[in-house]
Amino acid sequence: MTTRPEPAAVRAAVVADAHGITRVHHTAWRETYTRLLPEGALDVLDEDAFATRWASIIDDDVTSVHVAERGGEIVGWCSASAGRDEDRPRDAELEGIYVLASEYGTGTGQALLDAAIADRPAYLWVADDNPRARAFYARNGFHPDGVNDVHHLLGHPLPAVRLVR
């Protein structure tokens, strides 16, 4: 009988976490979006620019950012706010949540979601062709509200669907 690992420890992010968040952000994008984007699209990721942007986001009074740590290393992150869309359907938006593939099935994603928005009504955008994420959100009560869009990831179109709870 195998034992499922415990979720990673979750805490509020601090500016010093910007590089760790960036590392997870880039790795998770590669693990998630490589099959959805043109070959080489993710090769342009600029770690220093992302880390500077993350430091600014963590330091603002608009976005709540949490990190998940295992063994002193950041293995996931999430961010939430009052919402970026003019037609926002809820008063909270889960802006992003990513964990390394090595954390899949550990409960770390759930711990991050709980830290960011708990069980409050919220909305989020997810890549339309991301069955793993869509199943996770469905387990947490999110469902499509009928609004679709094309988001751009590093300049490349990525069909997205809005989910609400």
From TrEMBL:
GO molecular function: acyltransferase activity, transferring groups other than amino-acyl groups
One Pfam family of this chain: Acetyltransf_1
Keyword Transferase annotated: yes
Sequence ranges assigned to domain N-acetyltransferase in this UniProt record: 8-159
Keywords from the named record: Acyltransferase, Transferase
PANTHER family: ACETYLTRANSFERASE, AMINOALKYLPHOSPHONATE N-ACETYLTRANSFERASE-RELATED-RELATED
Record-given protein name: GNAT family N-acetyltransferase
The organism of origin for this protein: Protaetiibacter larvae
Lineage of the species this protein comes from: Bacteria, Bacillati, Actinomycetota, Actinomycetes, Micrococcales
